[in-house]
Write a structure and sequence with these properties.
Blueprint lengths: L2 H17 L3 E6 L5 E5 L6 H23 L3 H7 L4 H9 L1 H17 L2 H13 L2 E3 H11 L10 H16 L3
Antiparallel strand pairs: 1-2, 1-3
Helix pairs in contact: 1-2, 1-6, 2-4, 2-5, 4-5, 6-7
Amino acid sequence: MPLFVAHHEAGHAVAARALGIEILSASHAGNRHGLVQCADISADGEEGRYQTALLHLAGPAAQCVALGHDWRMAIRVSGGIDLPAAIAAVGDDDVASVFRPLAIRLIEERRVALDALAAGLQEMRTLTGEEVVAILDRADPTLASSILSVGALVEREKRAQRAGSGAT
């Protein structure tokens, strides 16, 4: 598995664990493709849309954080699947201004778990959900105990942006 695929898929899994979404498996199906399967997002309405966007953008964000890819490259080399799904969930403006920075921050703050899972994916072709969770929790024991409310993070990000631009 190419390094960028391992980190990309690990990013999705780290986000799922941070959001309290059940991880069913992580695998790769060749040289350039991987998949993290999760249970359905149980949050309804706005929180569910926010979780969907953040979950999709965490893969490209992991490539940026771990490998130094710029955002466009991360989207391009990942096959371009994640960005349209995130845009469908929350809209183009919010993806660019709110969710991309949130995804990058989420991954930066969980870098140890990201790298540990990427190494596990490099070593094994397929990991069960239990194996993924064990690797993540061993690397960062606080990951499962600090489930994120994306709605609160989005509002904080929007307030920070308004304050930075002088808007009220």
